[in-house]
Specification:
Elements (H helix, E strand, L loop, with lengths): L3 E2 L9 H12 L16 H18 L6 E6 L2 H13 L3 E6 L2 H10 L4 E7 L21 E4 L1 E2 L4 E2 L10 E4 L16 E5 L10 E6 L16 H6 L9 H16 L2 H22 L3 E3 L11 E6 L5 H10 L2 E2 L10 E4 L6 H17 L1
Parallel strand pairs: 1-13, 3-4, 3-5, 5-8, 8-9
Antiparallel strand pairs: 2-10, 6-7, 9-10, 11-12, 12-14
The chain binds pyridoxal-5'-phosphate.
Pyridoxal-5'-phosphate (PLP) binds next to helix 3.
Subunit structure: Homodimer.
Keywords: Amino-acid biosynthesis, Aminotransferase, Cytoplasm, Pyridoxal phosphate, Pyridoxine biosynthesis, Serine biosynthesis, Transferase
Family: Belongs to the class-V pyridoxal-phosphate-dependent aminotransferase family. SerC subfamily.
Length: 355
């Protein structure tokens, strides 16, 4: 039996995507060739790339608005430095809301001045700072929409008179937002879009080409745009699987339809965390709770072995919290079913009975 996979990333993808991807490894598009052995410049793969770019913009409602979708390599971590390389001339403003923001800040400091606009570091990132004042004269503002490790999620984004950049690695395509507020969005594929190996970058072209430094070709967004994400050999298979996942999302009714299911999953789990005396949520304010990654701890550590054994028996995978938080983290990305969340909640209820 397939496990209930709550892994934070790489994460669960739809079963139908695994099946189609497997078939394409054996015989892609009835070509009698594997997707793994065809040229990235071949017509069938160029069509995959174009479709993936089109679907990404469509899911974000950003077609014909001056944005380009790129599929790059190096993970979201590469974007930490590429963003600064391409956009930081003097000073940028950063929200520090988690480990990934912290890492983005560290990279940006190599290229210019960084102003921390808001931070929850002093509270081990257990909340989202509000009412943040945005200074003027910044080259851009950078934030992280969902803090994968700590389980917090931003619901309000700042108004800025400079480009707004967002790391959406762990909640891309999970909810409807006015994405045109953002000038550059990036997301490592392996959290909610596909397998590890490619990173989606959606960028408004007009913000590029303004810094005075020289940019190496592989790190220059303009170069990747001019070559349609084929400046060098792209991650053919991860892009193909990402395309399949975006097709699947479209068949489900798109981001608005999946958001309803994501809301339901989050409600089922958080209701149990709040009700069950054996569990506590990690996040300080309910309104900051992530609908993708729910973090929680046992109120009595002595029950850990029992709970872990019960989870394993129920076929639950990937529930361990990140080492910087401890406890548990249930990642409920798009492909995770409501039934899987119900299985977890049933185990939590069962623990109460046996404890
Ligand atoms: C996982 C994650 C990253 C790092 O992604 P890589 O692709 O491993 O570099 C960055 N930001 C967020 C929000 C993440 O969840």
């Amino acid at each position: 039996m397939k496990k209930h996979n709550f892994s934070a990333g790489p994460c669960i993808l739809p079963q139908s995507v695994f099946e189609k991807a497997s078939q394409a490894v054996l015989n892609f598009n009835e070509l009698n060739l594997s997707i793994l052995e065809i040229s990235h410049r071949s017509k069938p793969f160029v069509a995959v790339m174009e479709r993936a770019q089109e679907l990404a913009l469509e899911h974000l409602g950003l077609q014909n608005k001056g944005y380009k979708a790129l599929f790059l390599q190096g993970g979201a971590s590469m974007e930490f430095l590429m963003v600064a390389y391409n956009l930081l001339e003097t000073k940028a403003g950063y929200y520090n809301t988690g480990t990934w923001s912290d890492k983005a800040i560290k990279e940006a400091k190599l290229f210019g001045e960084v102003e921390i606009l808001a931070s929850s570091k002093e509270a081990n990132f257990n909340y989202i700072p509000k009412n943040v004042t945005i200074s003027s004269g910044l080259d851009y503002v950078h934030c992280t929409s969902n803090n994968t490790i700590f389980g917090t999620q931003m619901n309000e984004f700042p108004e800025t008179d400079c480009p707004l950049i967002c790391d959406m690695s762990s909640d891309i395509f999970s909810r409807v937002l006015d994405f045109s507020k953002f000038d550059l969005i990036y997301a490592g594929a392996q959290k909610n879009m596909g397998p590890a190996g490619t990173t989606l970058v959606v960028v408004k072209e007009e913000i590029l080409g303004k810094v005075t430094r020289q940019i190496p070709s592989m790190l220059d967004y303009k170069v990747h745009i001019s070559k349609d994400s084929m400046f060098n050999t792209p991650a053919v298979f991860p892009i193909y699987v990402s395309m399949l996942t975006m097709e699947w999302l479209k068949e489900q009714g798109g981001v608005a339809a999946i958001e309803k299911i994501n809301n339901k999953k989050a409600e089922i789990l958080y209701t149990e965390i709040d009700r069950n005396p054996l569990f506590n949520g990690f996040v300080a304010n309910k309104e900051d709770r992530s609908k993708m990654n729910a973090t929680f701890v046992l109120t009595n550590d002595a029950l850990k072995e029992t709970f872990d054994t019960m989870c394993a028996k129920a076929g639950i995978n990937g529930l361990n919290g990140h080492r910087s938080v401890g406890g548990y983290r249930a990642s409920m990305y798009n492909a995770l079913s409501v039934e899987s969340v119900q299985v977890l909640v049933d185990v939590m209820k069962e623990l109460e009975k046996v404890a």
